[in-house]
Design brief:
The chain is of the alpha/beta class. It has a single domain, classed as Alpha/Beta hydrolase fold, catalytic domain (Rossmann fold, 3-Layer(aba) Sandwich). The chain is about 40% helix and about 20% strand. Strands 1-2-4-3-5-6-7-8 form an eight-stranded mixed β-sheet, with helices on both faces. Helix 3 links the parallel strand 5 and strand 6. It is globular and about 45 Å long. InterPro entries: AB_hydrolase_1 (IPR000073), AB_hydrolase_fold (IPR029058), AB_hydrolase_sf (IPR050266). It holds the Pfam family Abhydrolase_1. Keywords: Hydrolase.
Length: about 270
């Protein structure tokens, strides 16, 4: 993993290198860039892939104490990364909270040439579903209590609960266990996670405004959704595809929200054939 010093602090990112067009992959809350590993194995044959680990609770180096970890703040981190690496004509792809961040970045940055939204928060689904509301409530705890509460995530039955990762992935338990490690072992990351939980969902209308901004996103846009998603309503996928001027909708079966874990080959194929 490479590192870059940004305004919030050190951000790690994976860079496959190469001379192909650039694709930037954004993950969700309490996840890291490994969400995309199986997708990268496919798309890196055609793209130079950048996959940052954003400060969303599974990062490994604590950010500055005054870092803005709201959705707008994390979008600013992403935009700064694009600028510092001088990435242009980017295919920006976001899943889960990463898709919410991607909406904000795409609406504001001319560096985004194409947008792919993969089963993500949209419109008024913030925090998203039962899972999101439960996780958001944990932000009311102190970092110490939060870290103590999260110790149960060492156990697979706890991770598989609907209020944890149970409704987010069908097949990705190994990844979800690894994502918990920084919170469980590093007090600074637990502090950052609590700050993120308190900030990410503070502006409940931010994605409603983003949706209006996306009506003028006059570049190619692909919306990929899980057919039976219980956290991100499939109707939101249809609405996003309809409001984007060049929007196209692809629906994938036998997957939960985290399509990069559950159906990486089908997701990679949808992106590369688009």
């Amino acid at each position: 993993m490479a590192e870059i010093e940004l305004g919030v602090g050190i951000v790690e990112y994976r860079d496959t290198g190469g001379d192909g067009p650039v694709m930037v992959l954004l993950h969700g809350l309490l996840m890291d860039a490994t969400l995309w590993d199986a997708v990268i194995a496919d798309v890196s044959r055609s793209f130079r892939v950048i996959a940052p680990t954003l400060p969303l609770g599974a990062h490994r180096t604590a950010v500055h104490a005054d870092a803005d970890l709201s959705l707008a703040g994390v979008a600013a981190v992403t935009t700064e990364l694009l600028e510092r690496l001088d990435l242009r004509g980017v295919t920006l792809v976001g899943n889960d909270t990463g898709g919410a961040v991607a909406q904000l970045v795409a609406a504001a940055s001319p560096r985004v040439g194409r947008l792919v939204l993969v089963a993500c928060e949209a419109f008024d689904n913030l925090p998203p579903g039962l899972t999101g509301r439960t996780v958001a409530a944990l932000g009311k705890l102190s970092p110490g209590l939060f870290r103590a509460f999260m110790q149960q995530m060492r156990l697979k039955p706890a991770r598989r609960l609907p209020i944890a990762f149970g409704w987010l992935t069908k097949r990705g338990d190994a990844a979800t266990r690894a994502w918990m490690e920084p919170i469980l072992t590093r007090p600074g990351i637990a502090r950052d996670a609590v700050r993120a939980l308190r900030s990410l969902f503070a502006d409940r209308a931010i994605l409603l405004r983003a949706a209006e901004d996306l009506r003028t996103f006059d570049r190619p846009a692909l919306v990929v959704w899980a057919a039976g998603d219980r956290v991100m309503p499939p109707e939101h996928g249809r609405r996003l595809a309809a409001l984007l001027p060049q929007g196209k909708l692809v629906t994938i079966d036998d997957t939960a929200t985290l399509i990069p874990l559950d159906q990486p080959a089908r997701l990679a194929a949808a992106i590369q054939s688009w």
